[in-house]
Amino acid sequence: MPCILVTGGAGFIGANFVLDWLGRPDAAWDALDAAVGSPVTDHVINIDKLTYAGNRLSLDALDDDPRHRFVRADIGDRAAMDHLFERHQPRAVVHFAAESHVDRSIHGPAAFIDTNIGGTFTLLEATRAYWQALPIPDRAAFRFLHISTDEVYGSLGPTDAPFAETTAYAPNSPYSASKAASDHLVRAWHHTYGLPVLTTNCSNNYGPYQFPEKLIPLMIARALAGEPLPVYGDGQNVRDWLYVGDHCAAIRAVLARGRVGETYNVGGWNEKTNIDVVHTLCDSLDALRPRATGSYRQQIQYVKDRPGHDRRYAIDARKIERELGWRPAETFETGLRKTIAWYLDHPLWVRDVMSGAYRHWMGLQYAA
Ligand code: NAD
Ligand code: TYD
């Protein structure tokens, strides 16, 4: 059975991607069918180490689905990767697995170097060995799609043009530096060995199944728990926000129709200051789940800034629109409404995820 190998598919974006993929969203599958020339029924081999960020509960809906196979493994384990390639013969790799949280990278960068750089290197080498042994037509059709971040481009001033694919790399945090290094490895494996790679650099994602250490789910969880809402610095840092479902559609488009060796920036055309995001979120919660008295805005607290905090990210997503016809479907308002509704409708998922690792992190990062 044709299959794709997904790494990090128990994390936030990976789980959304796997669920969407197996849900066969129409337009994307039509495009895939057309690209391959016959109906495609890819199964998913989902490889995840299950760090604190990986969550099997997010994949509950696939428990009895024969099209999905979950394998607990580390992308840095070469023997395990070789075995999985040999056994499943994937036609593509979609590489999400990473350490992904900037604040954690400041407290402990080692895991970021190990997984994002070392793990990507090992995965590339296992992929290369498998790919080089494929028959010629399969080699040409094979794809390695690397999921990266806009943070590799560094920080923008208020009037700077948004990041384009040609913007020079200038990563500032251990997280973004490790992702930049992984992007360079992927690029080099194409230029040196001919591996058919694609890279996407996207902005801040939000939506269902996101671990509540990142801004939006953290604010939702803490607001509902009656806890302070910690806004770093002056709250004027700007991020571009991309609904995760839109991101998954972009990845499918790049996998199906992207030009080999190219990078594609993926953004939501939604630049917001952090304080605006938190205000909008508080106002939505006031309407959907009002407090006994007053507004959730009363819980906002300005706290010490993150060291090296990038001031502004913004994405120029015209290339992917021009070449592949992708544009985000959600506005920030519609995406946020869906996201808040999902967290309110999934109290068991939220309760489970706010146990051990979450509490430990809250103590480390926010206790003071
Ligand atoms: P996440 O932290 O929610 O999930 C990462 C997943 O990778 C987890 O399931 C974890 O268990 C797994 N993993 C970690 N180390 C591993 C290893 N050594 N071997 C196998 N699995 C391992 O991250 P996310 O938000 O879903 O991000 C996915 C990808 O998208 C990452 O590469 C990240 O850099 C990138 N990205 C994320 C965002 C965002 O806003 N979340 C924005 C831009 C880019
Ligand atoms: P985050 O979700 O960590 O993503 P990134 O740092 O990768 O952009 O943070 C988004 C923005 O929100 C960022 O400018 C930092 C800010 N932030 C807060 O103000 N308070 C918080 O508790 C967190 C986690 C983030």
Automatic annotation (TrEMBL):
Pfam families: GDP_Man_Dehyd (PF16363). It comes from the Bacteria. It is an enzyme of class 4 (lyase). Its EC number is 4.2.1.46. Residues 5-339 form the NAD(P)-binding domain. This is dTDP-glucose 4,6-dehydratase. It catalyses: dTDP-alpha-D-glucose = dTDP-4-dehydro-6-deoxy-alpha-D-glucose + H2O. Gene3D superfamilies: NAD(P)-binding Rossmann-like Domain (3.40.50.720), UDP-galactose 4-epimerase, domain 1 (3.90.25.10). CDD domains: dTDP_GD_SDR_e (cd05246). GO terms for molecular function: dTDP-glucose 4,6-dehydratase activity. Its cofactor is NAD(+). Belongs to the NAD(P)-dependent epimerase/dehydratase family. dTDP-glucose dehydratase subfamily. Keywords: Lyase, NAD.
